[in-house]
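anyone seen this seq b4? input:
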Amino acid sequence: MRRPPSPNRPSDGLPTPDDLAVKVEKAADDEISSDLLTHVARRLIELSEENAQLKQAIESRPVVDQARGVLIAMLGADEDQAWQILLETSQHANTPLRRVAEALIASATGRPVPEDLRIPLRRAMSKAR
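predicted toks r here
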């Protein structure tokens, strides 16, 4: 029994996983096209990478929000300013945002900010003041 194509199209215009499943079933019934298999493999890789990125973002969100709260309390910054401080520090230190957030939270409990984050964090904070 074949599944009907999904009415929901991703915004990037590529087929949905359901659409790909239908195409693969049809190709298996006929003759499998190497172009189709290549397309399916690429799409599965893209979806797998996107899924991993979304999982990481979900896991990092509470830490980043807590770090934003630390900046708001320390500097009297608003939420957008706190976000910009974290983002700028991450970019200028070439360090993942989650690591910057974890270091900032640790510094609120008395631990020193790691050497490689001190200057980028100080610069971003001074811009917000």
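The chain has a mean pLDDT of 84. Residues 22 and 28 are 10 Å apart (CA to CA). kinda curious what u guys think
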